[in-house]
Every structure is written in structure tokens, then in C-alpha cells.
Amino acid sequence: MKITSAGLLALASVLPFATAQSPEWGQCGGIGWTGATSCVSGTTCSVINPYYSQCLPGSASVPPTTTPPNTTPVGTTTAPTSTGSTAPAPGNPFTGFEYFISPLYASEVAAAAKLITDSSTAAAAATVEKIPTFIWLDSVSKIAPFGTYLSTASAQQKSSGQKLIVPIVIYDLPDRDCAALASNGEFSIADNGETNYKSLYIDAIVAQIKQFPDVKIVAVIEPDSLANLVTNLSVSKCANAQTTYLACVTYAMQQLSAVGVTMYLDAGHAGWLGWPANLSPAAQLFTSLYASAGKPSGVRGLATNVANYNALSAASPDPITQGNPNYDEIHYINALAPLLGSNFPAHFIVDQGRSGQQNIRQQWGDWCNVLNAGFGTQPTLNTGSSFIDAIVWVKPGGECDGTSNSSSPRFDAHCALSDAAPNAPEAGTWFQSYFQTLVTRANPPL
Ligand code: BGC
């Protein structure tokens, strides 16, 4: 949902490869690179990530210390705490289930609908209460309510006979949101973040799940984290977080798999990892991390477009996507899936919660409360693609992406762009006027 590095990498991707010296913005190194490793005068070969070095204008800057994920053991290799009966059934994990509706989001929507004076808009808004969205466990404080939700879901499915999925987002990495500011989190790497994440966050979630083994859980794992490791290691906070992110995501995969959670690792979106130059590095990161984690059986695939605005299948390319043949999520998925080969399960879920309106952004990298967005295709298993298990709403539409108040410590300039909605509150809090626009511009209509 966040930073794309798209412009730089788009340029790189169309430049000729095996020249004696790479041109400005050209690739000059990285795992698997066989072209020129020096740059034309006036530019310096700089490590962007383990798979990609680039001729950047100017003199040498100190490259971030990077550890190629496919050559170094990643994270803990501790065996999961339990195995066996929790291995997921093969096939689409959503088939035969209905969603548990987030009580928090339902109450936000109910309160919001009451504030809308126009009666037909209010009625449309109220219908959103019943549309399933993912439940973001974005801090330790959300774990106790999550336990209550599991208990409610267990009771509901016992009384109705209808099996339920509780859809969650694991989102509390130390030094979270390393290439942006709006969603910086509660744990810091410098202050015991990795241990806190494992023991206070993942272990606590696992403890809740163990109490309700009858409830099926589907989880999106750490939006933006691995994509940041593919394209944003030039940001020092991301470079510094690399080892910790890998260790924490590995731990999450192993521990959640051991209690039967079905997982989709976040894979950015078409305008981020979907650029041709980013596809192979992304596939290598996913496959190597999955292998070094011991191929946890709960990992089902990848989640794309989380909290972003891209169409699954655009009627025509938005002009801002120019230069990228993968201009929507289906093109991105079709390009990425073959690169995963047999080394990572090529199944996807795609967030369409705020993708109803297209051609609304000034730049593809604009991610914060984009103006004039509308609710998109509602959750369905009718995806039109054998790669895609489900169209989902991961971002609860109406919850803010980030504050537009420039004096906030989590102010990110993307949230004050001219195509970002003004007067935005803090990330995750309710943004009434934004919700109302999502309702009125919903496509298909609510
Ligand atoms: C925020 C989280 C929130 C999530 C869903 C993120 O941008 O940082 O706090 O839970 O969005 O609204």
C-alpha cells in the first residue's frame, strides 16, 4: 500500500542490459545479475536491495548493510510448538465457510450511518455493516478483544451449524512501516522489539487461538514489510529492520501455522512489486523465506493490493501506470505466479475494498486516503482466476490511512498531497467524510 520506487525501477526495467557501463538509473548488480557492474560517469552503483543495485546520480553513498535472504539462515529455525492435526485441508480455504463479521467495524459503520442525513445514502452506508472486512491486530491491546471474537464465532457456528472464518491481519512488527511514518507501531527494534513481538504479540495471539480450535482463521501477514525489503533497503530504517523483519515474519509463519492458521504473506501491489524489475527479487524473497522457515503448512499464498486502490482487472490502464505492463492486480499476479514455481504456493487473495473507482490518483505511489475512492467489488470466491482464492476487503473502509496534521509525530507527507483527503485523523481511526465518499462512489453500488 505504500512506497513504490516505481519511477526509478520502471526506468531501469526498460534500459538495455549487457552494456559495458550501465547508464544512469540502470541496473549494475544484484543476485543473478549478469550485466555491467560499473556505471557511466556522474553516477554511482548503489545497493538498493540484495537483488538490485542501480546507477544513481552523484557520488558514492554508503550502501546499506544487506544480507541476501537466500544465502543466510533467516530468523529462528525453532520447530513449531505443535504439529499434526492442524494441517489445513487442500484447496481453497474459503470454500464452505462464511465470514465472521468484525464487531468493531460493524459498530463503526453503524455509528457512521446514523450521522448521514441523506436517507438513501444512510441506508446504503448501513449495508456495509454486513460486509466482511479483516480484523487488524495492530497492537497488543487488540489481542484480548480478538479472543472475545473467537469465543463469539465459536458460539455462533455451534448454534447455526455454519462454519466461520475469522479474517485477521498480523500487523505489529518492530519498526513497523519502515519506509513511511503514518503507521509506525508500538515496538522498536532498539528497545527489545523482536523479543516483544514474539512473546507479547505472536505468542499471545497463539494462546487465544489455541482456546478455540474449532474456529478457522485466515491471516494476512504484515502488510508492506517484505515489499519494503525488496525495494526500500535504501531507506536506512528498512535496512536496519531487514534481519528483524525476516526473523519476526518467520516466527509468525511457524507459530501460526502450528495452530492451524491459513496465511497469505503481503505482497504489495501491481504498482510496487509488479514492476518488471521487482518481480524476480520479490519471488526470490518469498520463496527463500518460505524455505528457510521450513515451508509452514499454513502458508497458502500471497495477499495483494492491501489497503491500496488498484483494480483487479482494469478496463484500460490508468495513465499513471504507464510503463508497467502489469497495470492491474491480475496482470501482476499472472506475472508473479510463474516465478514462484513450485517453491511457494501460488494462491492469492486480493483486496478490492477501496478499488471501486479508477484513475483517481496523480501518481501510482499515492496511498494515503486517496480522494474520490469508492468501495469496490464485494468479497467473493467468484474471482475469475484459478490463482485467486478470494476477492476480499482487507482494509476496513472508513478507517484512516494516516493523519494530514503536519505536527503529528506520525505525519507522512503522502497524507497531505493534493489527491489525499484533507482533515484526516490518525491512521486506523474513523474518518467519517472519507467513509461517506466510499459509500456514494461505491462501484458496484452498495
Ligand atoms: C493503521 C492501523 C489500522 C489499519 C486498518 C493501518 O493503516 O496503521 O492502525 O488498524 O490501517 O485500518
From TrEMBL:
Key word Signal present: yes
CBM1 domain span: 20-56
Coiled-coil region(s): none
One GO MF term: hydrolase activity, hydrolyzing O-glycosyl compounds
Matches recorded under SUPFAM superfamilies: Cellulose-binding domain (SSF57180), Glycosyl hydrolases family 6, cellulases (SSF51989)
Biased composition (Low complexity): 72-89
SMART domains: fCBD (SM00236)
Catalytic residues as annotated in Swiss-Prot or TrEMBL: D177, D224 (proton donor), D401 (proton acceptor)
Gene Ontology process terms (BP): cellulose catabolic process
Pfam families: CBM_1, Glyco_hydro_6
EC number in record: 3.2.1.-
Membrane spanning residue stretches: none
Sequence segments annotated as region (Disordered): 62-89
PROSITE patterns named in the record: CBM1_1, CBM1_2, GLYCOSYL_HYDROL_F6_1, GLYCOSYL_HYDROL_F6_2
Binding locations of substrate: W136, D138, H269, W272, N308, W367, K395, E399
Gene Ontology CC terms, in alphabetical order: extracellular region
Keywords: Carbohydrate metabolism, Cellulose degradation, Disulfide bond, Glycosidase, Hydrolase, Polysaccharide degradation, Signal
Signal sequence range: 1-20
PANTHER family, per the entry: 1,4-BETA-D-GLUCAN CELLOBIOHYDROLASE C-RELATED, PTHR34876
Entry's family note: Belongs to the glycosyl hydrolase family 6.
Annotated protein name in UniProt: Glucanase
Species annotation: Collybiopsis luxurians FD-317 M1
Taxonomic lineage from the root: Eukaryota, Fungi, Dikarya, Basidiomycota, Agaricomycotina
